[in-house]
Amino acid sequence: MRPNFRGKPRLVLAAIAATLTLLTSAADLLVEHRTEERVVAQAERGLRPDGPVRADLTTPLAGLRTLGGQVGDVTVSAEGAHIRHAVLDVTVRLKDVTTNGASAGGTATAIAGYDQVTRRLGATDGGLTVAGRDGDMILSGSVGRLGLPVTVRATLSTTAQTLTITPSTVTVLGRSTAVDDLAGLPAASGLRDELKPRTVALTALPHGVALTSAHAADDGLLLGFSIAAGPTPRAGRKAA
């Protein structure tokens, strides 16, 4: 009986296609893994983190794209990054990254623990601690010779290079008063002067990086940034 070869060429072609697909996928994953390792190494040098650094290439076939000089979209996160005089948890998301270090721009977030915020604001000098509630900053503690318990709620606003903290209400002995209303209380003039808005400048942000938002989260002060298209900002130059 003559063997039946009908259908076998199709099976052979299908097997070859499947093999090539597996090889392509394996090569892509290998190149992608090596690219992620290089990104992590660069982030570790620039950020000097206390915790782990993670890099994710989120564009399909990102590994093979690197062979043509394109990496695609990249997300890098680092815990306990040392930036200037602060220790922050940082996440950076960049679009259309190239192998020569340029991108189409992106965004970044950085979160600072309230212990650092308290020290930066000098709140410890007045016996106050800093926390967050519903997006606003809360300063609380005991002040004055009588050690009266005081809670101050402040709103946050930003420009490209500044963060402004504006006290809105003050609560003393369970009674809340709008800071603006303190102007009508002569005895509260000293407290009113201490509750003036305070602006913190972020003067050493890398070129192309701008502050866009500030939110007092439960676990720390969350800052948002925009990153302009062009060379990837050098993380070591960022201020906090």
TrEMBL record:
Keywords: Signal. It comes from the Bacteria. Residues 1-26 form the signal peptide. This is Secreted protein.
